[in-house]
Design brief:
Strand order of the largest sheet of chain B: 2-1-5-3-4
Helix content of chain A: 25-40%
Number of helices of chain B: 11
Largest sheet of chain B: 5 strands, mixed
Number of domains of chain B: 2
Number of strands of chain B: 7
Strand content of chain B: 5-15%
Largest sheet of chain A: 7 strands, mixed
Number of domains of chain A: 3
CATH architecture of the largest domain in chain A: 3-Layer(bba) Sandwich
CATH class of the largest domain in chain A: Alpha Beta
Oligomer: heterodimer
Radius of gyration of chain B: 21 Å
Structural class of chain A: alpha/beta
CATH topology of the largest domain in chain B: Fumarate Reductase Iron-sulfur Protein, Chain B, domain 2
CATH architecture of the largest domain in chain B: Orthogonal Bundle
Chain lengths: ~600, ~250
């Protein structure tokens, strides 16, 4: 190669991602200090990459008289089966009112109103109060559109179709992060961005399951980079499956995308292939309005035990609610079904449980700091807030609230601080490794003499994760699965993409599947460590929960080896079974 | 479903580093409920890894998979192969620079959103707290049918005037401007109206309704533009008068 392997660009704050976390971080950092040099880099198109855009149902926030942040907190930790980092959960619920206010007052969002003109809040599963703010059934569009516009208005620079591939440490061994190596997907060129503060806001996205709800360019890039850099992780065994991913056929792109939770909230029925409302056998009291983990597992069990539909799914049926009601309240869902030839308002639609969200991630403190100085994480890249199970509606609250927190913290940290250089050896190795996934002499995916492809490796990974490290687990499967992940890792290390560097999708897919395998292994290792069933982690061989000594599973890399550790849960605000009383006055729109 | 297979003709080239435009054909075995996006991913992963296209959410929320299917701009992810015929032609959106095959550069389109000041500029009252506003209020009844635009670019590709006048603001930018002009929470109404009432703005629209017909969200930008014209005319703003004179000037 002629010329330097990479360009260098300097900035104060580097934000990786433009979903809820990245957008709000950029806005908050700018508002805190407009003089900062902020740079956003996003793998796809600005504001259109990742899962915040795909949010349907809405945003949990205590706004109404009769509700309280304390109630929201209790619902969050109960759903989390008491594994939540309670300080993070408190940050979430107590900052959400201020955040939703700013989405309207600063960004001009307009969420649905009740007839009295106040912000409407709807019912979501597992909550003691109707507190889910929404914009119809496609809330994420309003949210990302309005915040993106404000980023453009402020002239904050954005690099589109630039993926981060490696976090760059400062020279020496203290672990401080000083930016990231970016790969321009369009040109295939590399830029080392040297930053005082770097935010991981790339989204999680368990896209390595057979059925997955997430945006498909997501490949857990942020977590994989963080792991390689030495960041500590928590709760990685906790993967949320949503009960109702649309099912048009295995391997078809739209399969696994969601039909929203609100359909069950308003009284939709789930039916197996025999037409039975099977939730009667799993949670006769709450039926379809039971928590996500339970409903998803029930559907999975029905399918696995031969009571599924012809395509290997179950049905969601809302036709008894009246076609007009369904069309009015779930227009987005009705439209997408209609495009596929389904009449959601009038007939059952086939669905499958689908991998949706990772509760685990980089361990952060309440300022979004990871275990490495200079590196922050927000949104799905970070773990701890949700414990063992995330409430529907707490996902977008989490990404936006912690995006703001990270933005303010980074602005405070970057202002006036000196910029430290990055380790050139790491940067050079990063470029060499990425280019090593490319075989420029062949036009096809496979290098000469090889018959593998990133698609084949990914298909194997998806099947393996679904079968062995999915909704129902056991010790033998987990151990076997970990071994198979290692084999897939070897395949992924060998596979090459042919063709040139510019806009080479196959090359990007090689890099993607390597990251997916890195993170899949963290899930497998953490799941093996948890010898009980809790929240989203269910083991057929140990179906009971062990309530006497609650712990979080931490995983870190030490001297190149994965080290697993159980740490007792710190009940900093309330002990299991306890309550915290609501404040006498409802606290609205606090910061 | 077509029994024997479907031929997918893909327009390739047209990019700065691959200028030669050509069509390449691929034969795929259709499956029930297969979409155009499924066809593209199958081609890319099984037949031709060099094919360039773009997608993210795969369910009509991000809009990044927009392209032309048999000449008509559509989302790849929500368009079933079934019913398109035995030969399906896929081409990039028009009025956008091509980056690679079917993936286009949205920058010029988004720059026009900026020219239309397509962002909220809240009034003092709106900046202090969420405004209480009935969903049945006149402004919300006007705004709501236009607000869920995902800026996928389909309207802009369908717009004859965007092809004729490269500086025309286009349907999406004007649609967003309309929602802001109607919004009592926004402070920039008059200025924004002036911005969009210039010679490359609302008066360029000839009300062909191609944008409205093409919009997969059921939004009618053409209606929004008509409403902006009425407001601009009613306002009698100086800028409006100037724009008419400018717009009618020879060669203008």
């Amino acid at each position: 190669m002629s010329g330097p392997a990479f360009q260098v660009r300097k900035c104060d704050v580097l934000i990786l991602g433009s979903g809820g976390a990245g957008l709000l971080a950029a806005l908050a950092a700018y508002e805190a200090d407009p003089a900062l040099d902020i740079l956003i880099a996003v793998k796809g198109l600005f504001g259109k990459s990742g899962c915040t855009r795909m949010v349907q149902g809405g945003y949990n926030v205590a706004l109404s008289a009769g509700d309280s942040v304390e109630n929201h907190f209790m619902d969050t930790v109960r759903a989390g089966a008491w594994l939540n980092d309670q300080d993070l959960a408190w940050e979430l619920v107590s900052r959400a009112p201020g955040c939703i206010r700013r989405l309207e007052t600063v960004c001009g969002a307009f969420f649905d109103r009740s007839s009295d003109g106040k912000i409407h809040q709807k019912a979501f599963a597992g909550q003691s109060f109707d507190r889910t703010v929404h914009k119809g059934d496609l809330t994420g569009i309003e949210l990302t559109n309005r915040v993106s516009e404000q980023i453009v208005r402020r002239g904050i620079p954005v690099l589109e179709e630039r993926r981060a591939i490696t976090l760059l440490p400062v020279p020496g061994a203290d672990g401080r992060i000083a930016g990231a190596m970016l790969l321009d997907i369009r040109s295939g060129d590399f830029t080392a961005v040297n930053a005082k503060c770097t935010l991981l806001a790339t989204g999680g996205g368990p896209t390595f399951y057979k059925y997955s709800a997430c945006a498909q360019e997501l490949a857990t890039d942020g977590m994989a980079m963080a792991w390689e850099a030495g960041v500590d992780f928590c709760d990685m065994e906790m993967v949320q499956f949503h009960p109702t991913g649309i099912l048009t056929g295995e391997g078809l792109q739209i399969t696994g995308t969601l039909l929203e939770e609100g359909l069950r909230g308003v009284g939709g029925h789930l039916l197996n292939g025999r037409g039975e409302r099977y939730m009667e056998r799993y949670d006769p009291e709450r039926m379809e309005r039971s928590t996500r983990d339970l409903v998803a597992r029930a559907g999975y069990t029905e399918i696995r035990e031969g009571r599924g539909t012809g395509n290997g799914g179950v049905f969601i049926d809302v036709s008894h609610l009246g076609a007009d009601f369904v069309r009015k309240n779930f227009k987005g869902m009705v439209d997408r079904c209609a495009d596929l030839g389904f009449d959601l308002a009038g007939a059952p639609v086939e669905v499958t449980p689908t991998a949706h969200y990772m509760m685990g991630g980089a361990k952060i403190d309440t300022g979004c700091r990871t275990s490495l100085p200079g590196l922050f994480a927000a949104g799905e890249d970070a773990g701890g807030t949700h414990g063992a199970n995330r409430l529907g509606g707490n996902g977008v609250a989490n990404s936006t609230v912690f995006g703001e927190v990270a933005g303010r913290e980074m602005a405070a940290g970057a202002g006036g601080a000196p910029l430290e250089g990055f380790d050139s050896g790491t940067a050079e190795a990063s470029v060499a490794e990425a280019l090593g996934a490319l075989d420029v002499d062949t036009p096809g995916v496979d290098a000469p003499g090889e018959e593998d492809s990133p698609y084949s490796v990914r298909a194997s990974l998806k099947e393996l994760m679904w079968e062995k490290i999915g909704l129902r687990r056991n010790g033998a499967d987990l151990a076997a699965g970990l071994g198979e992940i290692a084999s897939l890792g070897e395949r992924a290390a060998r596979v090459r993409a042919g063709g040139g560097r510019a806009y080479n999708i196959a090359w990007q897919n090689v890099l993607d599947v390597r990251n997916q395998i890195t993170v899949a292994e963290l899930i497998a290792r953490s799941a093996i460590e948890r010898d009980e069933s809790r929240g989203s982690h269910y083991r057929d061989d140990i179906p009971e929960s062990k309530e006497d000594a609650l712990y979080n599973v931490f995983i870190s890399k030490r001297s190149g080896e994965a080290v697993i550790e159980r740490r007792p849960v710190r009940f900093t605000r309330v002990k299991p079974g306890g309550e915290i009383a609501s404040a006498a006055e409802p606290v609205n729109f606090v910061d | 479903m077509v029994a024997g297979g479907v031929i997918i003709r893909v327009r390739r080239g047209g990019a700065a580093d691959d200028p030669e435009e050509r069509h390449q054909t691929y034969a795929i075995a259709p499956r029930p409920r297969m979409t155009v996006l499924d066809a593209l991913t199958a081609i890319q992963s099984e037949l031709d890894p060099s094919l360039g296209f773009r997608y993210s959410c795969r369910v009509g929320m991000c809009g990044t998979c927009a392209l032309r299917v048999n000449g008509r701009p559509r989302w790849a992810c929500r368009t079933l192969i079934e019913g398109l015929g035995e030969s399906v032609t896929l081409e990039p959106l028009v009025n956008f620079p091509v980056l690679r095959d079917l993936a286009v550069d949205m920058t010029p389109f988004l720059d026009k959103m900026s020219r239309a000041r397509a962002w909220a500029e809240p009034t003092e009252a709106a900046a202090s707290a969420p405004v209480e506003l009935s969903p049945d209020s006149r402004q919300r009844v006007r705004i709501d049918p236009h607000i869920e635009c995902i800026t996928c670019g389909i309207c802009y590709s369908a717009c004859g005037m965007a092809a004729h006048d490269p500086d025309f603001l286009g349907p999406a930018a004007l649609n967003r401007a309309y929602t802001l002009v109607c919004d009592s929470r926004d402070a920039a109404g008059g200025e924004r109206l002036a911005e969009v009432a210039d010679e490359h703005g609302i008066w360029r629209c000839h009300s062909q309704f191609n944008c409205t017909e093409a919009c997969p969200k059921g939004i009618s930008p053409a209606t929004a533009i008509q409403a902006l014209k009425r407001r601009a005319a009613a306002s009698g703003a100086k800028s409006f008068v100037a724009s008419i004179i400018g717009g009618l000037a020879p060669g203008g």
